[in-house]
Amino acid sequence: MEKAEHHQLFFTNLHRPRQPGPPRGKQGRRRGRPRHPDPAPAHRPVFGWFQPPLFEARRDLTRFNRQEHARLDNPWLAWARHTAHRLGEAHGWPRGVRLDVGRALVIVLSGHVSGEVVRHSEIFPALRSRGLSVQRTVEVLTDIGVFQDDRTPSFEQWLERKLEGIAPGILLVKSQCSCLALIRSRQPGGT
């Protein structure tokens, strides 16, 4: 018997595809659902005179139902979808993120009218409960100019908690300026 110089090791079925059908991977990418068509190009809706609201009323977007409340022909929604598509291409948003932002824009802008602002306190509970991206939706709303950030800075909340039990007379400094103004000016970026 001859002396073996080397051995070759074979694993079963590694040289054949495991599943019959078209090749997968780079050789034959398996396509999933067809792509959604790109939104039609849109511009900022033109509006003339509008009746300003008599008083501010917060909208409850948590009760949004797509079958009942969705108005897909809203020009603000069309413009926001076009802007989201443009931002998504520029920032490289994955397909799932683009679809989630589109769903969020339908929730937020279906009943939108000219002159109305969208507040963070209105959209956060509605989008977070549905697992949609608040940050990317805010980015689109800011770009089209309808977003108002009504959140209280965390520094202000912390300062109020710390100064809660202090008497009002102690908060005044000799030069009659408020202690709060002095602390705010010492904060980085304060005025």
Outline the fold blueprint.
Blueprint (H helix, E strand, L loop, with lengths): L65 H4 L5 H17 L3 H15 L8 E2 H10 L4 H11 L2 E2 L5 H9 L16 H8 L5
Parallel strand pairs: 1-2
Helix pairs in contact: 2-3, 2-5
Task: Describe the protein.
- This protein is mainly α.
- It is built from 7 helices and 2 strands; from the N terminus they run H-H-H-E-H-H-E-H-H.
- It has helices at 66-69, 75-91, 95-109, 120-129, 134-144, 154-162, 179-186; strands spanning 118-119, 147-148.
- A two-stranded parallel ribbon has the order 1-2.
- It starts with 65 loop residues before the first helix and ends in a 5-residue tail after the last helix.
Unreliable sequence segments: none
Q: Mean of residue pLDDT?
A: 77
Largest β-sheet summary: 2 strands, parallel
Number of helices: 7
Number of strands: 2
Amount of beta strand: under 5%
Q: Summarize the amount of helix as a percent range.
A: 25-40%
Strand order of the largest sheet: 1-2
Q: Can you describe this structure in just a few lines?
A:
The chain is mainly alpha-helical and 191 residues long. The chain has helices spanning 66-69, 75-91, 95-109, 120-129, 134-144, 154-162, 179-186, and strands spanning 118-119, 147-148.
